[in-house]
Amino acid sequence: MGNRGKASYGSRSTLACALAAALALYALPAIHDEARAASNDNNVEWNGLFHDQGPLYDNHVEPTAAQAVTLTLRTFKGDITSANIKYYDSADGAFHWVAMSWSANDATGNFDFWKGTIPASASKKYYRFQINDGTATAWLNAAGTTSAEPSSGDFFILPGFTTPAWMKNGVMYQIFPDRFYNGDTSNDVANGQYTYAGCATEKHAWRTSVVSNVSGCNSAVFFGGDLAGIDQKLGYIKNTVGADIIYLNPIFLSPTNHKYDTEDYMTVDPAFGSNTLLQTLSADIHSTSNGPKGYLVLDGVFNHTGDTHAWFDRYHWWTTNGAYESQSSPWYGYYTFQSWPGTYSAFFGIPSMPKLDYGASGSAVRNAIYGSSTSVVQTWLKAPYAIDGWRLDAAQYFDAGGNNGSDATNHQITAELRNAVKSVNPNAEILGEFWGNASPWTAGGDQWDSAMNYDGFMQPVSEWITGQDYNGNVASIPTSQFDSWLHGTRANYPTNVQQTMSNALGSHDVTRFGNRAGGDIWKTYLALFFQMTYVGTPTIYYGDEYGMQGGADPDNRRTFDWTVGTSTNSAVALTNKLITIRNTYPALRTGSFMTLLTDDTNKLYAFGRFDATNRIAVALNNDSVTHTVTVPVWQLSMTNGSTVTELISGTRYTVQNGQVSVAVNGHYGAILAQ
User: Fold this and answer.
1) Residue 616 domain-assigned?
2) What single Pfam family name could you report for this chain, choosing any that match (predicted)?
């Protein structure tokens, strides 16, 4: 649910995009000679500059108030005369300077490292680098390198702000419960079992049409998927696929198959099972007896209820009086009526989803949803359910008075919600739904941990690989623009937010990736290579691991095909292999990211992920034919004569003249590790 508009480029300035593209174009093997020629010549060599908040460049990505932060800047050897850190401290509203000093050379002898330390304190800080070679000056921050001092796009220091380690290191699997697996036929919704909003329920056979027999009644179509089915298929999720985080679309009582119109937040829908069965499923997900320890994230639909909720009760289903039935209802103030009872604020104006009015701090709605120990949010986080996090549906719209959020009240609500969640479990995840730049909720360290990365992953990946946006519209971008887009959107977030952004190829709200790829499984292969090696939490929408087809809602919610969801399926097997590699190398999860090569003509892309233990170069071929990719691994400080191993094939290569050349099949990848 949420804003279904096309993700905006508005989160990236034109300048930042152009600079990132320029950096990518500079990252060509020929520049290796420039490294040797760097000198104090009143010219800062931009291609030698690098800093991010990976472990080699920031000694405390998640500092406490008592930890000073030592930052490292890379330049070409002998290229600069001085460097400084300029940082803004929110404590005094002023800029401060830290002089950097030369620290060391890298193993290749191509680079110098400079260090400087920002003193410890509890305040939020934002920093950039001033780099000087005699009379020439360059500036570097998260948005890129510029000749003039930037006014935005700085790196972040947010003392006391942490995001869950399990989210940084995990792989998430998203399930639309009615369509995954029917583990208990006794709870199936029958034909005509009940009627809601003029639509009688329809039971369809597995792997048949998701479209209702009655126009406009697609939400009344049920297939029988349930929590028992998910529990029975944990071995597939944990072992065959390799995912360890399960995110479930809504499971609470509701008259529809999607359940984004909640009828009772405290009751698991009987078509899915029971509260007791959710306890069992949670325990089995957390267990290590059936695979790796897992984590459970539930969908929290807290912007609106359904019109059948007792608080509203449009159809008089409850014995109590809801807000629609009586202005004397105890819940009348939970909603905003323009003209009672028929005109009220609703999600996107949909009458079946009346919008909650959160009122002022301490209001009854705030206490019911998150503020009290018996609230919805806190109850499911605590034993015996012990879920590990909430995905917040349409969270930008939480507000008071029927307004649509994105203002001071919305941020107050989400900050309070964070405090409530973390008071129960400091390691719980808060994953917000937003389709653009989510930095208003993530960059301050006081609201969401991360967001669904439509803008910084799903959209650019789709346009680069499939030539379509996530809604299936024609939209194709070259490799250099793809890299610029990624760079610009990473710069929107603190590093620990980047590392927990939910990176999916598709979701329940957009067309299937397999559909956008025209059924070409090789495009899914390529997407999987990138998904499992990029910064963030890989998120697999059930079936995307085998290239499931599906158009717009409801067709993107087809039933899982268990004849192809097996370890013998090539895409499923590749998914498992890539996740195993990701799990083996921390550099692929929390290491630095560096662009190494963009080739628009041959549709090639290469980048590095690295930490103190491993240097990994990933080469991707978005063309339909095999190309030899010459990767400038000297940028990762791989020394000549050293050996790298391609992790899919096991082939070993020797670094020569700072490069490794590897043949990569069309719509495929190579992962070179050292």
Assistant:
1) yes
2) Alpha-amylase
Q: Which two tokens stand for residue 513?
A: 């990736």
Average the pLDDT over 113-127 and give the result.
Answer: 98
Give me the domain span that covers residue 282. 174-300
219 and 274 part of one domain? yes
Residue 14 covered by a domain: no
Q: Pick the more confident residue, 26 or 32.
A: 32
One domain for residues 141 and 178: no
Is 393 known to be catalytic?
Answer: yes
CB 566 within 8 A of CB 199: no
Distance from CA of residue 401 to its chain's centroid?
31
Task: Find the catalytic residue in 393, 463, 545, 599.
Answer: 393
Q: Is the pLDDT reported for residue 610 higher than 60?
A: yes
pLDDT of residue 32: 53
Domain C-terminal end among 300, 317, 333: 300
Identify whether residues 152 and 184 lie together within a single domain: no
> Residue 455: its pLDDT value, please?
98
Least confident of 28-42, 183-197, 213-227, 405-419: 28-42
Report CA-CA distances (Å) from 309 to 96, 291, 414, 443, 622.
54, 38, 23, 35, 49
What the block records as the tokens of 204 is: 């369809």
- Hey, which bits of 290-353 come out as E strands? 295-300, 337-339, 343-344
What does the pLDDT look like over 165-211, one tens digit per residue?
999 999 999 999 999 999 999 999 999 999 999 999 999 999 999 99
Neighbours of 345 (CB within 10 A): 20
* pLDDT tens track for 379-422: 999 999 999 999 999 999 999 999 988 899 999 999 999 999 99
**Catalytic one among 45, 269, 307, 433?**
433
- The burial class, CB within 10 Å (0-12 / 13-18 / 19+), for 408 is exposed
Q: Look at residue 367 and tell me if it is in a domain.
A: no
Quick one: 145 and 203 in the same domain? no
| Tokens read off for 450 | 């991360």
- 42: domain CATH number is 2.60.40.10
Residue 180 lies in a domain: yes
- Residues 6 or more apart from 165 whose CB is under 8 A from it? 427
pLDDT in tens, 625-669: 999 999 999 999 999 999 999 999 999 999 999 999 999 999 999
Give me the amino acid identity at 575. T
Give the total residue count for the chain. 674
pLDDT at 34: 53
Q: DSSP secondary structure string, 567-610?
A: TTSHHHHHHHHHHHHHHH-THHHHSEEEEEEEETTTTEEEEEEE
Q: What total number of domains does the chain contain?
A: 3
